[in-house]
Structures are given as structure tokens and as C-alpha cells.
Design a protein that fits this description.
The structure is a single chain. By secondary structure, this protein is of the alpha+beta class. The chain has three domains: about 250 residues, Sandwich (Jelly Rolls); about 190 residues, no CATH class; about 140 residues, Cysteine proteinases (Cathepsin B, Chain A). The chain has 17 helices and 29 strands. A six-stranded mixed beta sheet has the order 1-2-23-28-25-26, with no helix packed on it. The chain has a six-stranded antiparallel beta sheet with strand order 16-21-17-18-19-20. Strands 22-29-24-27 form a four-stranded antiparallel beta sheet. The two termini are about 20 Å apart.
Length: about 625
Amino acid sequence: MDDNDDQKVIKESEESRSSHSSSSESKSSGSSKSHNKNTIEETKGNEIKLTDSPHLKSKHDLNLKTNSESHDQSLLQSPIVSPNKLREEGGEEEEEAGDFDISYSPGKSPGHLKQDKMEIYMQQEEEIVRFCKENSGSLWMDETFPPDSRSLFKNPVKLPEWAKDVKTKWVRPNEISKDAKFLMDREGDVKQGAFGESAFIGGIVIIATRGDFLEKLFIDFDHFELGFVTFQFFKNGDWKQVIVDTMLPYDPDSKQVCFSQCANPSEFWVPLMEKAYAKLHGCYENIIDNFLMLEGLIDLTGGVAECYTLTDPETQKLIENNHLWQTMMNYFHQKFYLGCINVVEGKSTKNPDASSRGIFENYYYGILDIREFPKENLKLIRIRNPWGPDGCWNGPFSDDSDEWDKHRNLRDELRLVFKSKKSDGTWWMSFTDWCVHFNKLFICKVFPESWQTYSIESRWQGKTAGSVCPKRMEYDSNEPMPEHLQLDSDDRWFNNPQFRVKVEKETKLYINLMQEDEKLCKSNYIKCNFMIVANHTRRNRIWERPLQTDIIAEAINKNNIDNPPTREITHQVTLRKFEGKPFGYYMIIPNTMTESRKEVSKIFFYYSYIYFLRKSS
């Protein structure tokens, strides 16, 4: 997709955007509603038919059916997938694999299942409130996440290094501050706690650049005075509500909350949100030692995340040819979340070190604004510093920089005011300096209302764990290859789950393949891939190794094949109608990347974020 197409997307995104993105709304709890102009029509056969409908229809009206092997529903997080019988096409029985049929079912939509989940949560909340009232206003204590070392560490006997010098007691917020409040300032500063090893706070820093989204994570804090609050996180393909009591691990010597905390000692939404996230993962240590920022951003938003390492040779080329700057500009105008960090290996965040230019090492910063001034040949980035008065840039275009006197017109255009000696927690710097003083860029894409979100849950199990696509047979002859040799001899790959997509107009897709979180399922990630194939035969499945010209893309290719397994892999692609046809058929085929015959059983979640490109008038 070229830059002109990107500009179309930006224009459409800005015209149709509301304060919350539809992709996250469509995956939110039952109390949220989605209003999306794009719908998926009922189709015959096992396919996803993508059309652009003028009629509004809730995402919860989608009924997704699969003929993959049935699962224990207690293990599944998505309520919208149910087993389906084998289908036949052209009189030939299809193998039991992973085809999917998407259709509307007004009589019984999956929305009622999401509502059931919300009703369960509401019942739990009512029981807690009743307990507190029946026990003379006693504050609730969560027995499933007790205030002791079991909630702090994986092994309470063997403590991690960062926890050995800190005493811990569990206290309520009003024992820390007489004026304790859950929320006082949505854009307030944050800081590390006594342990000084919380990475979760970095995700909050990036998401807080657009503070309205944080409210989506606050399900209930009206019962803060009764000793409990509720948050939600996007995990294993669904929004999960997590109730926690207000007991917090506290270091009486330093008089600090042990992990993340608000800079205002009377505000407690940050440590309580982190506690809920720790409960979801079993203990605090799990979200410290095993926290990956890309996974954390997805857990907080339900979006798609990616990272650029600025020192990587390929990224250096993007910087030199201006492509990275244009990408950042495009993403910023689409209101995606952007953040950055200067990673220095071997250094702790407990006692932050600043570079010679003032920026804290190993601390996350949010990106608030990106501007280009062609006349001045300047590219500027505005950074959000949530770490208080320290950790601020002191180089060119900082608050006290002489550069502003040289460019007074920019000062007026950006409406900068430097009357106060106290920093507002933000600064400007040039893109060139930014590339030098930060070495990682994080992007979290939460899609606007002009995008349509679609998801399916499936698994590789037994013969559906079909492994990699076989290589095409080599044939040394000037004569055409005999038909019997054109067929590959692989008896496994075609058994992988397959998703057939029909497009009737040019369509941009972000395809995301997510494995079940290893911290929750206690099973390591496996290396996997997915292939996008043009399906000119219009059959429900692909049975043989496709022609190289029909392979549109692979998520894992020669450039990233050596990367370790990750929870998500994502690929962006634009699909078009076949030449001379009013439609185009494509197959999306996820596969494990192992040649082993050892049986694999692995749940995965397949997402498509779909945008219909419109021709400019």
C-alpha cells in the first residue's frame, strides 16, 4: 500500500472517529456497544464475505461457527465460536479442519453470551457489597489473591534479587494517606515504587497520552470505600473483568507502595490497576520478570502493537530515507498510541540514571505530538514525561533552549508558554535528536470506527497441527511438468485450519494471530506462521502446495524467521478483486513451524482488522 492510500485511510479515520475506537469497543464487555458501518454478510459455504454495508449493525450480531474439533468451553475465552458439522462442497466431503462460516443469526447472537459474562461479574459484585453491609461496613478482602507473599512471588521461599532488601506489609490506601482517592488526575505523574522494577507502568505511560482510553479499563471504582475496585484487560481474545481488594504491598521504611504508584501520594488507581493485572497473571513477579511491552499494550487496549529498534540496520535505512518519520506521522494522525524508551542493558530502574541530556535510561515516555515544518526544515516531536520534575530533555528545543528564540514563529504556532519555571511534564525535541537519545519506538494501533473487527478462536490439535507448507517439487525439463508430479506429497499441511475470505472491493487488513497467553495456560509459545493465498478455484480448502504466484504474503519470512516464538504475529495486507472478476477469494492458513511428529495441542485466536478503501471522488 502506497503513501496515497495511507492518506486516504487517515482521512477516513479522522472523519469517522469517535472518542473510543470501535475495534476495542467490539471486543469490550457486554456493557459496551459497537456502532460500525461495515458489516459481514451471511454467506453460503465456509467463507468470510467482506462488504461495505450502509446499514448499522452491532458486532454482537455475528454468529461464528467452526467445524474444527470441539473444545472444553471452560478453557475458551471467546464466547462466539461453536463447533460445526463437516460441510460438503461439490459432493466431496471436507476434512475435519478449521474452515469457518460467518453468518448473521438474529435469533441467537453471541451478544447474549457476553451479557451472561457481565451478569456473572455483576452477581459477584453484589455478593461483595452484601457481605460488606452485613458485616457492619467491613472492607472486603480477596481470599483468591491474599495479602501475603503468595501474591507477590512465584516461590515465596526463593525471592528475586530486587525484593530481598525491602520489607513488605499490606495496607489499605487510607493507611497511607488520610485523603486517599481512587482517581484525582487522569494525566497525573507516576513513579516506581520501593522495588523499582515495574515495567507495567510503562504501558500505562504510553496509553495515558490519550487519557480517555484509560476510563475503559475502569469498570467500577464506586466501591473504593468498601475496599474493592474492578478493572478489565484484554486477554486470550476477550475482555476479562478482574475484581481486587484495596490491600496494597507497602514498604514501611521508605513509606512507598512496593510497585507502581501515582506521584500524588493520595491517588491510588495506578497501584490498584497493577494489582489487578498481577492477579490476572498469578502474582506480581510474573508481570515483572516476564512482562513484554508489546503484550502489555495489547492487554491494555485490545489493539495491535509493534516495535522498532532504532539501532537495527533495517530501521536505520528507514530513518535515512525518511520512511520512519512518514510512518510515525501517519500513525499519529490515525490516533494510534506511540511511546519510546532508551534501553540500557544491565541497569535497574530502582535508582534511575539520566543521560547527559537528562533523559532517564530504561524509563518509558509517551509521544504526544509530531509536527513537520518544511520551511524551517524541522521535524519536531513532543514527549510526555510522567516521572515528575526529573528525567526531562535539556537539549535543543527543550523549554530553556535558545532554539525557540531562533524560531519565534514556531513558538507562536505551537502556542508555547515558558512563563512558569515549573515544567508541565512535556518537551519538544528534533526528530534527529530523538533518534539518537531513544533506541526503541512502540506503536499500539487501536482502530477507528471506519475499521471492521472480526475474530475467531480455534486450535491446532491432532491432525489440524499441520506444520509448514511443503516446498514445491523441483523439475528439470523443458517439457511441462506431468500432472502427477505437480501435486505435492505432503499429507499434513492442508489439514491446518483455513479461513476463506471473499472481497468485493479493495480491502486493507491487519491480520493478527494470537496464541493463548503462556503465563495463564502454563504452556510455552510455539513458533507459528500464517500464509495468505489467492484461491482462484473458489474451493472451501486448499489441498496442495499453492503456486508461488498465488502466495500473497507470509507473516514470518526470511527476514524474521530466526526470531523467537511470540504471543502474537501480525501482518498488514491489501486484498483486491481478481482481474476481470467482481470478487477475489483468498485463504488465510495459520500453521505451526515444526517438522516434529509429536502431537501439538494449542489454542490460538485469529483477528482481522478490516478497512474498505474508498476511491477518491
